[in-house]
Each structure stands twice: as C-alpha cells, then as structure tokens.
C-alpha cells in the first residue's frame, strides 16, 4: 500500500481559569449581570483538579476511552491519584506557563502581550526550564506593573491575572494601521494569540514525541477556527506559518484550511494528498484552541452548583509522512474519502450514506470491516449538564441505524453494535478539537499493540453558521494498520 | 379514507415551528414528517450546540 501514514499525534490542554471570563458566553453574561463573574470565579477548578479530571487524562493518553467509560459519573468528583500532567500523547499546562508562551507569540511593537516586570522573569524561567516548550522561539517584553495597571484602566486592554495577581496585559494593535479596526482589538487578538500559542505547544510536543527536528518539517496546515486578519481580509489566514515560526520550523511553508469542525479531517486529507503526490514529505496538521468557547456551558454549571468544566484550551498536531512501513495508513484513492456533496440531500440518511457506506464500498469493504468509528467525541459530562445530550452517543445511534439500513445488522442489535464499534466521548468542547481526531493517538497505539486494524473517522461541520449557506459538511477517512 | 391515511394527517390545519439539531434529529427530517402528516412548517432551523 502506497498511501501516506500518520506518524505521530500530540494533544495539549492549557488550563486557563482566569481566561474563562473572556470566553464569548461568559463575556456576554457579565455584560448583562456583573454578579456573574464572581459566581463564575467561585466555581473554577484548580490546576490539580483539571489534571485529575478523567476525560483530560484520556485526552493526553494516560487513560483510554474504554477505561473512561467504566468510571462512574460525576467524573469531576473522581480523584485519580495516579493522574499526571504529562501523558504519552501530550501534556496539560498551567496558566502561568501558557502566559509565558503568549508573550513569546507576540511579534508586534508596541507588544500585543506584555508581562509585568515582577512576573516576567519567573514566567519565562518556567518556560525555559520546560523539557518540551523551552523550544518556542521569540522574544518577550515586560513593563512596570504600575504602568500596565494604568493602561488597564483605559478600558481597551485585557489584564492577564493568576488569581488576583497581575501577570501582564493584552493590547489592541496600537499602531496607526491598527486604529479603529474591530478585528484588531484586544479580545480578537487574544483569541488568535491563544490559538497560535496552544497550537505551538502541540507542535512542540509532536516534534519531541516523533524525534523530528523542526527544520525537517516541509509544510504546516492549520485547521484552527480563529479568523486572524484585519478589516480588509478578516480571516485571511496565516496561522499555520505563525505557529511554524514560533516552533522553529524554518524550512516549512504552510496554509490554513477552514471548514468549521470538520477542518481537522479536511486538513489531514489535504496533507496526505500533498505527501502522496510528492509535493512535500513531512506535513504537520495543527489545530490550536478556541478562547471563545471557554465557559460556553458555564451558565449551566453555575445554576447546578458544579465546577466550570470547560476551562481548558485544547490543541492537537499530527505528522503525516510517506509510508514508513510501521505507522497506520490514511487511505486515499478515488472514493476512499467520504464527502457530503453540495447537490445531495442533507437528510441524515444521505449524509451517513455518503460518509460511511460509499467510501467503504469504493474500497470493497462493509461497515463490519471497521473496528471502531470515531465521530464527534465531545465530553458528555459537559454536554449533558448543558442540556445538549451525549453527542457521541447520538452519532453512534445514526451510525448503527446506517448499518441497519445497509442490512448488516438487525435493529435489535443496534446497542450491541454501538458497544462494539463505539467509545465514550472525552474531548474538551472546543469546536474542531473533538471532531473524531482526538482518537487518532489512541488508534495509533492500539494498532501498534495489534488490537485494532481499521478505524473510520467522521467529522461534521455546521457550515450554516457562516450565514452563507444552509448546508452542513461531513468528511470521513479510514486509518488502517500496516497489516491491512 | 383508510385509518392509516387518517392517522397520517394528524397535523392537518396546524402550523408547526421546527427546531432540529445537527447531532440529533435534523430540522429537515422533522419537516418531512410534519409535511407528511398534513402540517404546515412556518419556521425551521437546525442548530449546532457544539
């Protein structure tokens, strides 16, 4: 088989409790009711609690979706004594280390991010001492806290705090060309900087795990959701190369792929096609985290008196290379990649037929030849408390119904089928992050152990959120062990 | 009219607002059921809660 492989997968979480108030939903709630913010702060988790949270341990590979599914809920009350901030697939970083990364992510003068003199040295020393993230490239700057607090009082600057101690500020673009541009205000730039910085953490971790030198990377594709750009090209792109610059990928170029939550799958398929065609040899797909989605479900958590569980930025990175004879293969070829056609019906039956049955048929396979299906893998504890139900389970119900319609299983075996091919959701509710691909790390490991042979990834995208179409998109692809 | 047809038209004369969900029952599926049951869909949306 000559198709490319996924030679590595890395996942990082940044626990940033003091940034939750800057998520889209909390910001709007605070604007309506100033009392929302102290209630929110009272229910934020500590770093130790976020690390010990079973879904987070699953995300970085210290646990598996199967083990997670056997843990009684509520998971937020579970104390995993062996929990670690580092796992085989990635790491959970604390807020101060993340702030140090944010400061390095700045490239402007006057700086978009400036640390306080009192905190700057300690934060950067923490970053410099880190075995993985000390590789981030770039300068940082600091200023007296008194001056930063004075600027903060001006109203257009965001303060970076840990508890009540100031660490620095995030500014709008103060240059003449940034004036009066809502795309370059402090919150919009902080959203982009959070995506860039968290994405860089995932790339740095991927490079460490795979042993690939940064200068060996040929190309990066960003699948993050942030729309970086100014008034003339809102969402113009450039995030992939910005992340590559921060991680020292000096010989790489890059581009951004936008496709809402299905962008990771679209980007992986594009990366594999670039490798198979011989255009590039080593391509990294990276997705940084979404500040806007922090605290998206916080209103529900506050009303129910439970911790705010959507308090982490998620990030991920994947290395796609030519077939190395070891790593799992991403199947390409005519018809092998599932797509939702523009002219086809958007009924559930049509979508799942296009995403599952048609690509499998093109490869001479049926649904029973797939060991696991990885659809939207949102953490159900977050979604159910918010009244949105178990998203992964809903997707498995449709996948099982597709198998019934295909005549592969009986309707009475839907639950059994789901148990055989499904898993418990474990990913943070960060839009594109949970879309099937959090399972790639687990799939690669299980295939190396000989426990799995074939996994199908199914990603959906709510294109209608752009108000340009009523369509939604779907992308699917197969990952196979070398034995297949 | 058969009993089956009569049952199928239980929404005749009714105006219906349809709220679908991307990861559950989509608005289009509900619309098709409502229309088949004789109802008139006056509003339809499919939301994304993720």
What's the arrangement of secondary structure elements?
The complex is a heterodimer of chains A (484) and B (50).
Chain A: E1 5-15, H1 24-32, H2 36-42, H3 47-52, H4 54-59, H5 65-70, E2 90-93, H6 95-105, E3 113-116, H7 117-128, E4 142-143, H8 145-152, E5 158-162, E6 165-170, H9 186-210, E7 219-222, H10 239-246, E8 253-256, H11 263-276, E9 282-287, H12 298-304, E10 312-321, E11 329-330, E12 338-339, H13 348-362, E13 372-374, H14 380-385, H15 391-405, H16 414-421, H17 439-448, E14 454-461, E15 473-480
Parallel strand pairs in A: 1-2, 3-4, 7-8, 7-9, 13-14
Antiparallel strand pairs in A: 1-10, 3-6, 5-6, 9-10, 11-15, 12-15, 14-15
Helix pairs in contact in A: 6-7, 6-9, 9-10, 15-16
Chain B: H1 3-8, E1 15-21, H2 27-36, E2 40-47
Parallel strand pairs in B: 1-2
Question: What descriptors fit this protein?
Answer:
heterodimer; A: 484 residues; alpha/beta; 2 domains; B: alpha+beta; 32% helix
Distance between the termini of chain B: 45 Å
Radius of gyration of chain A: 22 Å
Coarse structural class of chain A? alpha/beta
Structural classification of chain B: alpha+beta
> Unreliable stretches of chain A, pLDDT < 50, 5 or more residues?
none
Terminus-to-terminus distance of chain A: 9 Å
Count of DSSP-assigned helices of chain B: 2
Proportion of residues in helical segments of chain B: 25-40%
Low-confidence stretches of chain B: none
Mean pLDDT of chain A: 96
The largest sheet of chain B is: 2 strands, parallel
Shape, principal axes of CA atoms of chain B: elongated
């Amino acid at each position: 088989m000559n198709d490319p492989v996924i030679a590595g997968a890395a996942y990082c979480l940044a626990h940033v409790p003091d940034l939750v108030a800057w998520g889209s939903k909390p910001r709007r709630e605070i604007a309506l009711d100033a009392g929302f913010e102290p209630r929110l702060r009272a229910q934020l988790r500590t770093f130790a609690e976020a690390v010990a949270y079973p879904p987070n341990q699953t995300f970085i590979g210290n646990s598996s979706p199967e083990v997670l599914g056997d843990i009684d809920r509520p998971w937020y009350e579970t104390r995993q004594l062996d929990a670690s901030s580092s796992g085989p697939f990635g790491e959970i970083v604390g807020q101060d280390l993340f702030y140090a990364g944010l400061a390095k992510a700045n490239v402007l003068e006057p700086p978009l991010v400036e640390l306080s003199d009192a905190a700057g040295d300690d934060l950067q020393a923490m970053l410099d001492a880190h075995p993985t993230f000390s590789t981030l490239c770039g300068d940082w700057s600091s200023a007296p806290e008194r001056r930063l607090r004075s600027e903060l009082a001006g109203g257009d600057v965001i303060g970076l705090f840990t508890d009540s101690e100031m660490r620095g500020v995030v500014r709008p673009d103060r240059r003449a060309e940034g004036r009066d541009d809502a795309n370059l205000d402090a919150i919009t730039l902080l959203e982009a900087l959070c995506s860039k910085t968290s994405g860089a953490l995932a790339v740095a971790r991927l490079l460490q795990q795979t042993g690939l030198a940064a200068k060996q990377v040929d190309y990066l594709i960003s699948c993050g959701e942030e729309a970086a750009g100014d008034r003339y090209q809102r969402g113009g792109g450039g995030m992939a190369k910005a992340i590559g610059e921060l991680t020292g990928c000096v010989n790489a170029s890059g581009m951004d792929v936008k496709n809402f939550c299905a962008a990771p799958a679209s980007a992986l398929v594009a990366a594999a096609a670039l490798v198979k065609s011989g255009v590039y040899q080593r391509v990294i797909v990276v997705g940084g985290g979404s500040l806007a989605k922090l605290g998206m479900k916080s209103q529900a958590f506050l009303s129910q008196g439970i911790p705010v569980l959507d308090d982490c930025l998620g990030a991920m990175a994947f290395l796609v290379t030519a077939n190395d004879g070891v790593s799992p293969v991403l199947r390409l070829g005519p018809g092998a990649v599932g797509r939702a056609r523009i002219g086809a019906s958007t009924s559930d039956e049509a979508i799942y037929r296009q995403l599952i049955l048609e690509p499998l048929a093109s490869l001479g396979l049926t649904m029973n030849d797939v060991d696991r299906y990885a659809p939207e893998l949102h953490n159900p504890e977050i979604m159910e408390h918010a009244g949105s139900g178990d998203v992964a389970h809903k997707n498995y119900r449709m996948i099982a119904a597709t198998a019934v319609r295909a005549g592969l299983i009986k309707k009475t075996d839907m639950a059994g089928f789901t148990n055989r091919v499904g898993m418990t959701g474990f990913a943070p509710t960060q839009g594109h992050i949970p879309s099937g691909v959090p399972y790639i790390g687990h799939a690669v490991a299980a295939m190396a152990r000989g426990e799995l042979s074939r996994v199908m990834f199914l990603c959906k995208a709510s294109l209608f959120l752009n108000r340009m179409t009523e369509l939604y998109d779907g992308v699917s692809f197969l990952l196979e062990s070398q034995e297949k | 009219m058969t009993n089956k047809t009569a049952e199928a038209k239980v929404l005749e004369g009714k105006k219906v607002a349809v709220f679908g969900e991307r990861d559950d029952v989509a608005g289009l599926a509900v619309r098709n059921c409502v229309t088949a049951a004789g109802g008139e869909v006056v509003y339809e949306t499919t939301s994304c809660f993720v």
